[in-house]
Amino acid sequence: MMNKSVTPLAAMIMAVLWPGTSLGAGYFNPGFLSADDTSVADLSRFEKGSHQAPGVYRVDIWRNNEFIDTQDIRFLASDKATGKAKSGGLVPCLDVDWLKRLGLNTVAYPALAKFKPGECVPMAEMIPDSETTLDFANLRLDISLPQASLLNIARGYIPPELWDEGIPAALVNYNFTGNRGSYDDNYYLSLLSGLNYGPWRLRNSGAWNYTRGDSYHSSTWKNISTYAQRTIIPLKSELLMGDSNTGSDVFDSLGFRGVRLYSSDNMYPDSLQGYAPTVRGIARTNAKITIRQNGFVIYQSYVSPGAFTINDLNPTSSSGDLDVTLEEKDGTQQKYTVPYSTVPLLQREGRLKYDLVAGDFRSGSDQQETPFFAQGTLIAGLPDGFTAYGGTQLADRYTAIALGAGKNLGEWGAISLDVTSARSKLADESEHEGQSLRFLYAKSLSGYGTNVQLLGYRYSTRGFYTLDEVAYKQTEGYEYAPDDPGNRNPEPVIQSYHNLNNSKRGRFQINVSQSLGDYGSLYVSGSQQTYWDTSENNTWYQAGYSSGWHGISYSLSMSWSKSVGISESDRIVAFNLSVPFSTLLGHGYSRNSALDRAYSTFAASSNSDGDSTLQTGIGGTLLDDRNLSYSLTQGHSDSNGYTGSANASWQATYGTLGLGYNYDHDQHDYTWQASGGVVGHADGITFSQPLGDTNVLIKAPGASGVNVENQRGVKTDWRGYAVMPYASVYRYNRVALDTNTMNDQTDIDNNVSSVVPTNGALVRAEFKARIGVRAIITVTHGGRAVPFGSVVREETSGATSMAGDDGEIYLSGLPLQGKLLVQWGNGKDSQCLAPYQLPPRSLTQAVVVATATCS
User: Which residues form the PapC N-terminal domain (predicted)?
Assistant: First the structure.
């Protein structure tokens, strides 16, 4: 032991000048901290570089700079395990199963066979050139493995054993919209409910519509779909039983009630494989937009005057044309169809993609029968960038066979070409045979800013029909919209028209966007369907230009549509301008204040009837989370005179609420919207914002009112539960609690979790919260402060800490009354117990200062 008369400074000089006098191993001299070494705890655990105690820590695991998972890992002191540890003096205890999860080719290391499950593998010894680095401050474990030691696994691959099927749960998603006007009231409620148990998902979708006027009312409920679904992980497939839609890779998408087994692209990493339809349009007034797919209403909402974009659709099918109806305040309607089909069907070499369906044909039209049919398709990735595909559709009155091929042309894009031959018997008992040739092309010219998302053409002979057409009860007919109970529109409204005597001939579709750099961007999209023996056609085109300058944005857009059987065409041109207040005030791009987040708008439009509309307004966001949006407008139109509106939408913790008011010269109405989700699980019921297909249940018991990072308006409820909607399937989802929003009595050991949900799952991200008092307690023993570095644990809560140089101990999550176990060595003589009691007001204080005596 060092002589007490030697000062710490002298001891340091002696250690430097005469290193031979030191011990062979590293030695931490307590004299550096205090001249009285009895006031310092046993710090021998620091002598060998083990700056952190061995134990279990939750760490982010990275392999060769690629994130793998967040898991609890047991760490050993470096002298008790063979390995390289650059920091912290700890090495992870990883068994053979963990090495397999890291992608190690264990066959190349036969010696690993001797290790039992759960037994730590000395990586540096068994896997030459491997290395582990623990960044304890950030709880990050970096594992470096030689590339030659790894299996040939695609980047982003997540082993199926990490996929989480979720917890048993009951789910309800609701969306309620209402309109109370001068003539009638209208209410629309859509419900998506479901049950989860293990890998099974049971879902039901339905909608209720209610209209009431002075002397009439109508109420209708329509069941859209019911189905059960589960993943088949070994096949990388999904099994679905009930109501759904077929794929559209080879044949057009069809609704069915039956069974479907199909390959799931989502189960493959991003590097081995999407598209969602975007609906654009132009409204002249505060209009109601309704979107149908396969005869079912899948979306209904209200849009403001001017150009609009809807990019958050959740279709009932992964494909199938979208029928858009825009109903203006004056009762006029715009109708057009947005084609929704995938780009060329290329697959990677060796990849097989299949789709098998058997069931009854199903649509939302009462003009069609429901024949039983079977369908099978197969797509195979071949060498040299080729893909071959084909399939068949079989029904009592219909047979079709399709064959095709695609090719990756490198700099020239990608193409596919296929031919379908079909035999049909129509409702009039006439028999037909014909062929249809389809060509698809996609190309991105990055250097020129051009993106040809889809360019396609289909040519059909006179005798070619689809299964959807064969299902019609009559060869020719109109389908009308439901009668208007208020008789505001006495003339029947045509919703669709078909004439099988004039079969389809050619269909051209295009979707192209062009970036102009600093000068904005252009887009053109549309389609045209021609028919045999008639000059009429279905045509829909949209074009637009948008740009910006110093925060100011503006756009010019045009839409034109024409349908067979409907004499009038729809044409509308619009101009929109948005100017942020921050630009007008000279604050640049600042969005810190509510005033800087406000903006002014101007919109002008004109349609084919010569009706022009002008409108100005202001809008913006409020609240700290910017989850309250508002808009005020005033305008004038040729048909309605002066118009105005006021709207607000609040993205709250337990749902989304919206209110609106609109008026013109002869009517006014109020609109409202409420949407959200309800989740029932083993721990109770949790309310949430609108749910997605796949969701995360956050469980942090006791941690109430804590915000969830990157989730606007989402925070834990009074019990500490919350739902994070719209999780990515078969991908890592980072779930993090914002510690800055915790109250003074809440602490969380680790505020970040990572989950990998399967399709439709409700997975749980659990956080351990400590609820109690934060305190600095000065503990004395025998009239002196407990030794510096003593380890402290509160017996009831399990909170741990370390004593400071004057016996101060900081602890969080403490009960008002408890006992502190203080240890400064290994024997019973090197520990004591300190009872403490804090006043009730401690629960309202940020940090409490107290004292305790240890005996």
Answer: 27-177
What's the whole-number average pLDDT of the chain? 82
Q: pLDDT tens digits for 59-75?
A: 888 888 778 878 888 88
Beta strand pairing call for 762-766 and 695-699: parallel
Residue (of 245, 307, 315, 237) closest to 276 by Cα position:
315
| Cα 746 from Cα 715, distance rounded (Å) | 14
CA–CA separation, 617 and 632 (whole Å): 5
Distance CA 490, CA 699 (A): 56
Residues 6+ apart with CB under 8 A from 751: 736, 737, 738, 739, 767
State the 10-residue block means of pLDDT for the chain, 855 residues long.
Answer: 37 36 45 53 52 76 82 77 52 88 84 86 86 84 82 71 92 92 85 95 93 83 92 94 92 93 85 54 79 72 72 49 77 71 67 94 87 95 86 96 86 84 93 93 68 79 93 82 56 71 88 85 90 87 90 90 77 91 80 86 86 90 88 86 90 91 85 94 94 93 89 90 92 89 81 90 90 89 86 84 87 88 83 90 87 90
Can you give the pTM of this predicted structure?
0.74
The answer to whether the beta carbons of residues 75 and 53 sit under 8 Å apart is no
Report how far residue 380's alpha carbon sits from residue 606's, in angstroms, rounded to the nearest whole number: 50
Q: Find, among 660, 680, 676, the residue nearest to 668 by Cα.
A: 660
Tokens representing residue 361 in the block: 């044909």
Closest CA to 465 of 512, 497, 423, 513: 423
pLDDT of residue 81: 45
Tell me what percent of the chain is helix, strand and coil, each rounded to the nearest 5.
10, 50, 40
Cα separation, 218 vs 212, in Å, equals 6
For 403-463, what is the HEC assignment? EEEEEECHHHCEEEEEEEEEEEECCCCCEEEEEEEEEEEEEEEHHHCEEEEEEEEEEECCC
Tokens of 393: 């559709």
Q: Minimal CA–CA distance to 219: which of 550, 603, 614, 485?
A: 485
Instruction: Please report the pLDDT score of residue 347 as a whole number.
Output: 80
Residues 198-228 pLDDT 10s: 999 999 999 999 988 777 788 889 888 999 9
User: What are the Cα distances from residue 25, in Å, to 19, 44, 45, 217?
Assistant: 12, 11, 12, 91
Residue whose C-alpha is closest to residue 470's, from 375, 399, 532: 399
Q: How far apart are CA 483 and CA 764, in angstroms?
A: 47
87 in Cβ contact with 133 (< 8 Å):
yes
CB 732 within 8 A of CB 752: no
DSSP state of 297: E
Angstrom CA distances, 379 to 236, 345, 404, 405, 421, stand at 15, 8, 9, 9, 18
Cα distance between residue 395 and residue 374, in whole Å = 7
User: Which residues have C-beta within 8 Å of that of residue 307, sequence separation ≥ 6?
Assistant: 280, 281, 282, 544, 555, 557, 574, 576
pLDDT of res. 271: 55
The two three-digit tokens of residue 222, written as one number: 């329509």
The number of residues in the chain equals: 855
Contacts of 487 (CB under 8 A, 6+ apart): none
Q: Six-digit token pair at 490?
A: 């006495």
pLDDT confidence of residue 159: 81
Distance CA 535, CA 99 (A): 67
Torsion of CA 701, 702, 704, 706, to 10 degrees: -70
Residue from 560, 543, 561, 572 nearest 637 by CA: 572
* Per-residue CA distances from 134 to 55, 749, 752 (Å): 13, 18, 17
